Amino acid sequence: xxxxxxxxxxxxxxxxxxxxMLPILKDNFGNPSSSHCFGxxxxxxxxxxxxxxxxxxxxxxxxxxxxxxxxxxxxMALRCSVEQLEVKHIITSKLEHHAVLHTVEYLQKLFSLxxxxxxxxxxxxxxxxxxxxxxxxEHKTLxxxxxxxxxxxxxxxxxxxxxxxxxNKAFFHSDTVQSIGHIPLNLNEINIDFITxxxxxxxxxxxxxxxxxxxxxxxxxxxQGGAQERGLRSGTExxxxxxxxxxxxxxxxxxxxxxxxxxxxLKKYMMNLxxxxxxxxxxxxxxxxxKSLYTILNCSFPASKNDGMLLFSIDLKGxxxxxxxxxxxxxxxxxxxxxxxKTDLQRQAIRFSFSHYTTKAEIDFAVNILFxxxxx
Length: 376
Ligand SMILES: Cc1ncc(COP(=O)(O)O)c(C=O)c1O
Known about the structure:
Strand content: 5-15%
Bound molecules: pyridoxal-5'-phosphate
CATH class of the largest domain: Alpha Beta
CATH topology of the largest domain: Aspartate Aminotransferase, domain 2
């Protein structure tokens, strides 16, 4: 048996997504910029996908710019803010994905940019009082804080951060790569400048995503060339994948409450089983439905004879999950997130992440393997 519990890394493509992409790859191969009927047919499905996506987050289709995924979308939000919107100060956190952290470091080297890192507690919650203080800066500021942490699942109180940004006239970018499609997101209710999405995190294809840019922000080309995406991001659009992305969003947001309930039950079930069967197991980050993403469970296992080999041993037994080790030895520099949370370096962290395709039998199988490893 092979069990896939690494859905925060990537998700299997939904069969319906493959079904909608294949005829486009085969027959609707025109370049959406061509004026002939092949081009027009491709353009029609492209714009239809944009409308579907815009509707799902309640924004205007013109605010969606297709990209090659989450990394490019994060780069675009940060770079356009600094290079075009005259941002001189970025407030972010040490818990961000490297798509944000490394881009901020790069921009800091290139421009005379102030960078502040907001404090967080041991569960990954942002210190809002500190954020408020940082926002008193005299410089034009961008706040870049992720919606749901990809390693530990802890949520950002996005509404509160949005309100603070409005009060202080700061731009607000949130990396929503892990949350889009998984929790309702209504941009009529959240005032935000940029959010990002990656299709492969929600049962769509890899190499495609989007950046939402609030229409009040007038930005120009990020990638130069043939002026696709209204001149903002050149390069022939990946029509089939974009249609796959729209279908994936449509599918995952259909009956979302039921999916949330199902996956949340699985997460609770796994937490209980682990607590009953493995002495001294702990969880990194927040774990409640209100405070963390129900698809992610970051476990902290006590030191044992499996140290350094736990992930490998689990993999050998057929379970795919992710290491979230805070180990700093050798080539493994471990997780920057867990290091920042100051978790016990003697313990072994493993991230299990679920989807609505995950079954209770798969959780039982995984917990049994862990039980055997810790009790033999
Ligand atoms: C929070 C977060 N941001 C950005 C990315 C990068 O997305 P992509 O793989 O589409 O470049 C990921 C993917 O791991 C992620 O989890």
